[in-house]
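Protein: Antibiotic biosynthesis monooxygenase
Species: Mesorhizobium helmanticense
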Amino acid sequence: MTPKTPTIARIWRGRTLPEKADAYESYNYEAGIKPLIDKALGVQTFREDTPTHSEFMTISYWESVEAMAAFTGGDPESIHHLDRDKEFLIELPMSVQVLRIRSSHGTVGPQDGGKIGDV
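Structure follows.
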């Protein structure tokens, strides 16, 4: 079987207060990322810590807009807030970004599919 090639990247961003960042990262992984891993062709998560907030970004990769729409239940740009997002996030994101992948070079991320330790 030939591996599917991602042609679409779906990017979600959210911000939390620094003191909630570690708890949100764990919650987001369990409630949001794990289900996504089973559906998307690939998933990357990012975190940037600043003195005033921590920003999280999730990029999921999809074979097509149709495949992404099947996961989201219709509109691929619609937001699906997690049950506890209101508790953690500074504001609830109102949109996601959907981009067509034009080129990709090299291999990125942990090769074992696991989490990267603290830097």
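Remarks: Strands lie at 8-16, 42-49, 54-62, 97-100.
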